[in-house]
Amino acid sequence: MAGALVDVKPTPILKAELDIVIPAIQNLDFLERWRPYFEPYHLIIVQDGDPSRTIKVPDGFDCELYNRNDINRILGPKASCISFKDSACRCFGYLVSKKKYIFTIDEDCFVAKDPSGKEINALEQHIKNLLNPSTPLFFNTLYDPYREDADLFHGYPFNLRGGVPTAVSHGLWLNIPDYDAPTQLANPLERNTRFVDAVLTIPKGTLFPMCDMNLAFNRELIGPAMYFGLMGDGQPIGRYGDMWAGWCMKVICDHLGYGVKTGLPYVWHSKARNPFVNLKKEYYGIFWQEEVIPFFHFAVLTKECTTVQKCYIELSKQVKAKLGKIHPYFLKLADAMVTWVEAWDELNGKVYAVSSYLDNHPGGDKVVLAATGRDATEDFEDAGHSNTARELDTTSSAIPELGITSKNQPVDYLQKIKDLTKPIWADADTWFERQQQEEEM
Ligand SMILES: O=c1ccn([C@@H]2O[C@H](COP(=O)(O)OP(=O)(O)O[C@H]3O[C@@H](CO)[C@H](O)[C@H]3O)[C@@H](O)[C@H]2O)c(=O)[nH]1
Ligand SMILES: [Mn+2]
């Protein structure tokens, strides 16, 4: 019966709903290794560095490639917000994509194997993570309850068992870990050989160091927050783009009631970079992060922040006011955050956050996501949100803004238990003995 109570959806391939974004400074021969997994998908290659160089992509892949000239042509003056000579440039791919989901991977990451020697289909696991809810509001000690072989533990509140929509799936890496330069210098030969078969929701109110080597997200839910900042050429800092995005994204997910998962899938990270080169890029970040992280811990978004864009603009104001004192760089970064949102809205239109939809469209309206013009009403209801949420009385255990919208959710689960176990009630007193006999045979 494991898993019977928590509906585990089969994993669709989503090839028409997902783009793969890869930042590149060299030929993408690594795609040959991923061909069985990536070939059905559309790739968006963001070529960094000298635009006159040619990046070769193996035949047979459906892809579009953008170099710096393309970025300048498409964004005009707003191109100033896209980093140059840093992997943070990849967020341009999130901007120009028109799909619901994004998977981003580095070109030195390959297919990993699990302890049994079986290849890991990283994309399939990310899709599974994104399509199943997260549990940021109450920690499930058996990890991700929405996996085939797991469920919600005794004592898990029934009115939270529906979980919340998952916005981000943060995968991990075997072999070369994503260490900062000082840690790498102190442990030059350390390799990550530990495969942990778990997916965890990062609890609400907890930040984490997001790594973009093996990352997937729901672009319609959280896309406008996935800006990787001003890194690399012309900037005092580099190699912090993914972490910056992770801190902004997590504060916004916590506010809007979305979940962030980390754990499976693993990829094989093949190359360590020169720690001395990395140290030069990271240097300021190592000191600034000790002040930036408390800033995000205590950042407050008000109830007027009902869309990702509004949250992001509010964060940029707080960055300017509170981090500008650390270094003038943060004043520039705060402006770039606004430019990014303007570029996003210019290319994609506004994307509704779930709770904002409830505020702006009580009962009955369709949920049409302007980013893609897609009617997302069904997803919206599937994710446990219902347009009738506004009609719930406030005495119910429902917490609409946290994505818990159905006051009869506890009844749903209890009713499900009754329905699933009905056959047992017929001969309850002998059922258990029979189970034990069968297990002993
Ligand atoms: O200037 C650059 C450098 C690299 N790229 C592309 O970005 C990825 C990652 O490059 P690389 O593997 O050299 O760098 P790592 O140190 O392993 O990067 C990881 O560490 C963090 C840096 O912020 C981040 O979490 C990971 O990306 C490759 O695809 C390069 O081609 C680039 O575009 N521009
Ligand atoms: Mn790498």
Describe the structure in your own words.
The structure is a single chain. With 441 residues, the protein is an alpha/beta fold. The chain is built from 14 helices and eleven strands. It has helices at 31-38, 68-75, 91-96, 122-131, 181-186, 219-222, 241-256, 275-297, 308-323, 329-348, 354-360, 377-382, 409-426, 428-440; strands at 18-24, 42-47, 62-66, 101-105, 109-111, 166-175, 199-201, 214-218, 259-269, 368-369, 374-375. The strands form two sheets. Strands 1, 2, 3, 4, 5, 6, 7, 8 and 9 form a nine-stranded mixed beta sheet that branches. A hairpin with a 4-residue loop joins strand 10 and strand 11. Helix 9 runs antiparallel to helix 10. Mean pLDDT is 86; it is low at 351-373 and 382-411. Manganese (II) ion is lined by residues 106, 108, 269, 271.
Can I get a quick summary?
The protein is α/β, with parallel strands linked by helices and 441 residues long. Helix content is 37%, strand content 13%. Strands 1, 2, 3, 4, 5, 6, 7, 8 and 9 form a nine-stranded mixed sheet that branches.
Report the radius of gyration as a whole number of Å. Answer: 23 Å
Total number of beta strands: 11
Find the structural class using helix and strand composition. alpha/beta
Distance between the termini: 19 Å
**Helix segment count?**
14
Order of SSEs: EHEEHHEEHEHEEHHEHHHHEEHHH
Report the average pLDDT across residues: 86
Could you estimate the helical fraction of the residues in percent?
Answer: 25-40%
* Major sheet description: 9 strands, mixed
Strand content: 5-15%
Give start-end ranges of low-pLDDT stretches: 351-373, 382-411
Ligand inventory:
the ligand O=c1ccn([C@@H]2O[C@H](COP(=O)(O)OP(=O)(O)O[C@H]3O[C@@H](CO)[C@H](O)[C@H]3O)[C@@H](O)[C@H]2O)c(=O)[nH]1, manganese (II) ion
- The geometry reads as globular
